[in-house]
Amino acid sequence: MSKYQYESVKVQVFPDGVAHVELNRPKVLNAFNATLVNDIAKCFAEIGADRDIRAIVLSGSGRMFTAGLDLADNFLLQEDNGELDVARKAFIVQEHIRWFQNAVTTLEKCPIPIIVAMHNGVFGAGVDLCTAGDIRYATKDSYFCVKEVDVGLAADVGTLQRLPKVIGNSSLVRELCFTCRNMYADEAYQCGLVNKLFDTKEQLIEEALKTAKVIASKSPVAVVSTKHLLNYSRDHSVDEGLEYTAVWNSAMLMTEDIPKSVEAFVTKKPATYSKL
């Protein structure tokens, strides 16, 4: 049994440094309620601090990756705050939105690379979640929908910030977000939202775990540094990214992993790296 136990997220840890995290509310199509939001935040914070884990696969159990918000749960609707004025009510709502934002951002802040493996429907908050991951794979029956406008709100936990940077097409992003239309697997592949498609969920998970195993076999110093620098450079100018990388690598280049990697290349034998 995994040491990571959550109510709505299932975790399996393999001896090769790979963890498989599943959204686990299959009876309601892995819809987001308060428990799932809290479990995602806690899970990726705890796994991200585990020095034995070097790569993560995130998938959804049951019929689809996620149906988005659990509208039957009403967890986003705030209680009546009585006589509070509009400004004070707004501060309370902001706090609630940031709680949800921070849970999704936990994937991005997690130092370990995350492969998001999606099948069938990926609605609303599922798009927020997958764009906070590092690598996105999907099945050929998958489809994506930025659903928030149909529910009467603007997406507010990451899609509007990350999706334009993921696919690099502002016109397409705006069309998807304004119309709430489904984007099917072929289009998602063509625009770069996902970079591999598979016939079945079984093939999807198998390939995602295989990729995770390859990542886990690499120098953890190099992999964690690469994720960190990619995220930094995405949000800064080229000059700022280069300057920051120079400072970062002035310390990271002193790692024992470099001579180990060179030796592995020369001898054609896999290197064994220490934990971070």
Helix % is 40-55%
Can you tell me the CATH architecture of the largest domain?
Alpha-Beta Complex
CATH topology of the largest domain: 2-enoyl-CoA Hydratase, Chain A, domain 1
| Poorly predicted tracts of residues | none
Please identify the top-level CATH class of the largest domain.
Answer: Alpha Beta
Q: How would you classify the helix and strand content by structural class?
A: alpha/beta
**What gross morphology would you assign?**
globular
The count of DSSP E runs of length 2 or more, i.e. the number of strands, is 9
Cross-sheet strand order for the largest sheet:
1-2-3-4-6-9
Please summarize the sheet with the most strands. Answer: 6 strands, mixed
Strand content: 5-15%
Number of helices: 11
CATH superfamily of the largest domain: 2-enoyl-CoA Hydratase, Chain A, domain 1
Terminal Cα span: 24 Å
Gyration radius from CA atoms, angstroms? 20 Å
Structure write-up:
This protein is 48% helix and 14% strand. It is of the alpha/beta class and 276 residues long. The protein has two domains: 9-216, 2-enoyl-CoA Hydratase, Chain A, domain 1; 220-267, Orthogonal Bundle (Lyase 2-enoyl-coa Hydratase, Chain  A, domain 2), CATH 1.10.12. β3, α2 (86-109) and β4 form a beta-alpha-beta unit. The chain is globular. The model has no long low-confidence stretch (mean pLDDT 95). Pfam families: ECH_1. InterPro entries: ClpP/crotonase-like_dom_sf, Ech1-like, Enoyl-CoA_hydra/iso, Enoyl-CoA_hydra_C. Keywords: Acetylation, Fatty acid metabolism, Isomerase, Lipid metabolism, Peroxisome. It comes from Phascolomyces articulosus.
